[in-house]
# Entry
Amino acid sequence: MIKRKSLGTKIFFASVVGLIISMFCAMGAFLWFSGNESYAEFRKDLETAQYSSLKVAELQSARLKASLDSIRYSPRFVSAIQVGIHDMPTLRDLSKTEYALLADAEFFSIFSDSGDLLVSLLGDSGFSEYSQEEKDHLSGHDLVQVHLSDHSYEKLKHKISKGGVFEDYLILRDRLFRVLSSPIYDNQDNLIAVLTVGDEVNSHMAEELAKFTGCEISYSGSEGLFATSLDDHGVLVRTHGEIPDKVSTFLQWGEFLILAHPLEHGLEDRPIFLVVKRSMKAFLKNRQQVIQLSALLLVVLLGISFVMNLWLSGKIVGPIKMLTEAMTRVGQGDLTVQVQIDSGDEVQTLADTFQEMVVGLRERQNMSRYLTGMELQEVKSAVESNQMVQQGGTKKIVSVLFSDIRSFTTICESADPGLIVDSLNYYYNQVIPLIEKNHGSLDKLIGDCVMAVFEESEGQNSADNALSAAVEMSKKLAEISPQMQESGLLTFRVGYGISTGIAVVGNVGTEEQMSRTVLGDTVNLAARVESYSKDGKHTCILYSEATKTASRKKWQDELMIEVTVKGKSVPIKIYELTQV
# Structure
């Protein structure tokens, strides 16, 4: 007896190669984790810079709010503005006086209670004259409409502070302003005007933030840069299209890591972002050197792995590949597969076992061809539940269909036996699949007679399924009859009988051999009904009154006969379909 080499011995040599590869994977994992750690630190720096920038914006708003409160709570201002809104020179003088008292404010405007711009001062240029488009932009902005429109107030109330001050950003003449607005009321709490003040978000502010945080700071929008500490503005222009306008987003562009934070403001179609940028040049250079060293090591390991793989392919991979291909063919239904492996190890044992399994499958496939539809379903159900088929039965509502070839005995007396079998097989191949198509099962073939069972279940009406099957079988027979005649086969005339009721469905027989079938009066009645089909005037598809009652569809039929059949004391009505 030839001593077989253990598969474990072969696996040992493969493990040597696996160990080397594992070393490389460990190095890759080290690079990945260290890279992630460094990347996380960069993200943390960017988030800190973002937080600081937003805090500066809050301080900016606090200064503006203090200035705004000093004006709107001034009795002198409230009294003066009630006169000034009807006297433009007075209003301009009042605005100029108050604007001069503001600290760090570069934007000052007053709007009427209907949202019209009355007066506006912008930076050192004094009173500003705006185009109609600019006036509409200012009047329609949230900082004005929130105090005039109940709808705007509900939508934007989360941006209104306790004192009724609204905070927002404003784009005006390609400049970005942090703005605050407040309603002005008279002594009777009537809205008389909307007061706005603002401070520009400029590059000086961005540069100071950059010095403090160590990151480059920019305020960017779809219209370009408003303020930045960057020397290279192009990075913002090139990446702007990748920035979502709803959530904070990290982007990597070249050697830079960028955090873009959307600033909520009055015009959603003109997004504004706080953009924080950090260079990763030193980190990327070090990582590139490690990657190059790893690539060199990879080449060496690949060379070793290649040599080992050549040896393993002949000893393990080849036979396993052969087995895999054979299993694939079996999975596709090819049971003619034969596998012969003489490797002298466990792989050969596996191949021998597989070949025995294929032989067993071929035997079962041939045996299954002698099972009816009901029996095959019972076997499949038992296999799926990992059980053996058991004797026993249960009562169910079923519709039983009998179809019988007319004058078959006469045909058998005069025709060649081979021709009879060929004709029957062709006919059965065409019509029997229609039973399963209509949710039925073939119970048995009794020579020229087909017995099928349609079980009632949720969503399936057995009576309608049986009738549909009979109709389709009749149509199919009419379709194939000319073909059968042209091919020299026998042609048939077929009658159909259907009955619906309670029957016993179960497995009967011996412990060694059983049959799945239905028993009871419903089966007998279906056979009796079919016997009257030879007198049919239309389709020869007959069914009992119980089937007609159980059916949910509307079938075109007529009462054929009311008769007392054998085994019944009460006459039954038999109906015939008038058309298919």
In short: The radius of gyration is 45 Å. Residues 434 and 472 are 7 Å apart (CA to CA). The chain has 16 helices and 18 strands. The longest helix spans residues 7-72.
